[in-house]
Amino acid sequence: MEKARILVQGIVQGVGFRPTVYRIAHDLNINGYVRNLGNIVEIVVEGSNNKINEFINNLQDNKPPISEINSLEVEWFDHKSISEFNDFKILESSENFSGSSVIPPDIATCDNCLKEVFEASDRRHNYPFTACTDCGPRFTVISSVPYDRIRTSMNSFPLCKECEAEYENPKDRRYHAEASCCPVCGPEVFLYRNNIIENDNPIKKAAELIDEGNILAIKGIGGTHLVVKTTEDNPVEILRKRLGRYNQPFACMSKDLKTVQTFTDISESEKKVLESRRRPIVVLNKSEDYMLAPSVSPYLHNLGVMLPYSALQHLLFTYTNEPAYIMTSANMPGEPMLIDNTEIISKLDGIADYYLLHDRKIINRCDDSVVRFRGDEMAFIRRSRGYVPEPYDFSRISTDLNVLALGPEIDVTFSLLKEGKCYVSQHIGDTTKYETFRYLQEAVTHMMDITRTENIDAVACDLHPMFFTTKLAEDMSQDFESEIVRVQHHHAHAAALCVDNNIDELVCIAADGVGYGDDGTAWGGEILFSHGSSYERLAYLMPQPMAGGDLTTKYPARMLMSMLYNHIGDGELVDLMKTDYNDYFKHGEREIDLVLKQLQKGFNTNMTTSTGRVLDTISTALRICGERTYEGECAMKLESAAFYSKNTIEIPYEIENNKGKDILNTSHILISALELKEKGKKIQDIARAAQNAIAFGLADMAINTAENMGATIIGGTGGVFYNEAITVSVRDKVESAGYKFVQHKNSCAGDGSVSIGQAAVAAWKSKGI
Fold first, then answer.
1. Which range of residues forms the domain containing residue 23?
2. Quick one: how many helices (H) and strands (E) in the chain?
3. 3-class secondary structure, 525
4. Cβ–Cβ contacts within 10 Å for residue 624, how many?
5. What pTM, to 2 d.p., does this model score?
């Protein structure tokens, strides 16, 4: 008789892991027990050596579908002639152990549960909170670990006798399914306007109200959506006016893939992700048969689409013939999603006409994840619901260091490195907003709680001294008496790219809107050689003045003047602006004269190498977009214009050398674009040619750097690499030169993964790498 203690770490809580262990043990006639031990699953078994090994193999081969085993440790005990156990049991959880396993993310409603929802004879027929161990909310309902019902928001809903019987039956798929419930014992949904509206079927009534043109606030799993029909412009325009989002594209939700295919062109790779259990928003190209209202995604060639991921959403779409509903986050830009019923009603007063709410508490906000494909490669724009809090494997970098990395300032996530695993938070947002900054602090505390992290060895942050996250890092490093590690923004981007591709060094093209450089200027078009905790800046875009500083990001006509200054005469510059772009200046001709004086005197004029500012400027120069009303607007509209190009013209690019460093002359590209515009060339062709010139110039500088440094890998990171055409152009040029090109696979090219890179740099620094 042998005895073994097995400790399993990974995604092994809230996924039906213990009942799976129970069933395998019973099939093999093995005695013992299984229980949650803090953040780990402990299994103790008795039997022959062969039986126990067979048990371990079966466990690894037949684990639950949404579980992951990161490590499985076996401790063998001395032979005993008398059995200690008479059967195999599932014991109550214990909190007397600290490990690094964590609960899984929220998962879309499974087929088995949906079958029950739509089966008229089933007791869960039409019940919007139907879930089991294979699906439903996890991260959004948990308050602490171990993951048991008493530590979730479901604790407010005692199980009825029928649900309790399922919950206590190890052979039932709802055994210890913490979100399990039914119409008798679970949360309730209700319709509200001034008061609760009595209705036998509030979901059906909600669909009817939407189809009549009303705007509904619908509370979901991790937050609240504003919902409106998509086949008429008027309801969408009313929503835009109430929100003050006059141009920003809205994501939408459709009933099924067949419906999505009626208005988008979708690849097999995109279909797979769209229908996956994670259910992110997928950015898809509009088809020739696109029939949704133009106001859903104005002036863009694509739009974000998702499929229902909760039973409530599936039910909603059974009562409508609309091909899609807009489903946009019910919050002001940069602020946290609304999750409390009272707050939802008060803050959306004047925006929503009706409210479809429920009485289950959302403990952790979690926005929808957003992805898009570049070629056949998926890229995260926002990694949140469906993925968080699954950790990244940092065991190759560090297994004994606890690092808290707080990210940048606007598109913030934070990362917590513990025991070789890096837990990246859900999307937090703009920490210059008080509510979001407070949300960041609360989310950090909660992540430390559910990972059982008590001490921090290092706090990592951005190099920018004035970021709110930098100030918070300084305070927290004092609280924990730990080191503070300040990481340059684009170095953090490069480090995240290294982590994602399991490498330590590369030549990195870092192209985005802005990042604080180590020389105190605004960077954003850099060629870095990144190696562990160190980097060298070896090439970059031409430094350009920004007349009015950050005003150029909102009004890129100011950047247009700035980039042309010193390249054409002052009189010619002013005449061009007043003749062709006067309407792009908020104060017209008076402002144009003022901007010229700023440039002449250098007053309130910062320098930048930002690729984002260059793309914005070209968009403005071609009169595609003259004002940024949402993040990335001008560059996104430039990409959409270029999407329809025949790619028939070319803009040459010039790489100059200054003190041994390559510099791409972006003013030359801009002037060439203006000359082509004057010659009457098609705007979409000029847009494509300008994008290509920037992409090829960045790629050439990276190739030169790689050759000089003896590197073999070149990567692309930063928000510019969400642009499919630029990404593909850079990749093709790099690979044709014989280098390996890498990009983000399981992390964001944008600022959402900066905290990952910060954590990696801090860990490498501690190791002297």
1. 2-90
2. 23, 32
3. strand
4. 23
5. 0.94
Q: How far apart are CA 698 and CA 756, in angstroms?
A: 24
CATH assignment of the domain containing 485 = 3.30.420.360
Q: Which of 310, 336, 371 is the last residue of a domain?
A: 371
| Residue recorded with tokens 């330590």 | 504
Report the alpha-carbon distance of residue 528 to residue 288 in Å, rounded.
41
- Which of 680, 571, 670 is CA-nearest to residue 620? 670
Report helix angle 666-678 to 683-709, nearest 10: 160
Total domains, the chain: 4
Question: Do both 497 and 513 map to the same domain?
Answer: no
Task: Please list, in sequence order, all residues whose beta carbon lies within 8 angstroms of the beta carbon of residue 283, skipping any fewer than 6 positions away.
Answer: 302, 303, 304, 305, 370, 371, 372, 373, 381
Q: Which residues contact 451 (CB under 8 A, 6 or more apart)?
A: 39, 100, 102, 416, 418, 423
3-state DSSP call for residue 438? helix
Handedness of CA 224, 230, 232, 233 (dihedral sign): positive
Q: Could you write out the DSSP letters of every residue in 271-330? A: HHHHTSTT--EEEEEEPTT--S-GGGSTT-SEEEEE---SHHHHHHGGG---S-EEEEES
Tens digits of per-residue pLDDT, 701-722? 999 999 999 999 999 999 999 9
224 & 324 share domain: yes
- The model's pLDDT over 438-488, given as tens digits with 9 standing for 90+, comes to 999 999 999 999 888 999 999 999 999 999 999 999 999 999 999 999 999
pLDDT for res 591: 97
Claim to verify: residue 518 and residue 426 sit in the same structural domain:
no
- Write the pLDDT tens digit of every residue in 40-85: 889 999 988 899 899 999 999 988 888 888 889 999 987 666 678 8
Report the length, in residues, of the chain: 769
Give the CATH number for residue 222: 3.90.870.40
Kindly list the distances between the CA atom of residue 45 and the CA atoms of 170, 327, 369, 564, 565, in Å, as whole numbers in the listed order: 17, 49, 41, 75, 77
Low-confidence ranges of the chain (pLDDT < 70): 38-39, 79-82, 95-101
Task: Dihedral sign for Cα 409, 413, 417, 420, please.
Answer: negative
| Catalytic machinery residues | 18, 36
Domain match, 477 and 615 both: no
Q: Does 268 map to a domain?
A: yes
Same domain, 522 and 667: yes
Residue 652 confidence (pLDDT)? 96
| Beta-carbon contacts of residue 458 (< 8 Å; ≥ 6 apart) | 401, 402, 403, 404, 477, 482, 483, 484, 485, 762, 766
Residue that finishes a domain, picked among 56, 73, 90 = 90
Residue pair 3/74 in contact by the 8 Å Cβ criterion: no
Same domain (yes/no): 415, 445: yes
Both 209 and 337 in a single domain? yes
> What b/e string do you get for 500-511 counting C-beta neighbours within 10 Å, with b at 16 or more?
bbebebbbbbbb
Q: CB atoms < 10 A from the CB of 112, how many?
A: 12
Output the pLDDT for position 96: 64
Same domain, 351 and 458: no
Give the whole-angstrom CA distance, residue 671 versus residue 564.
8
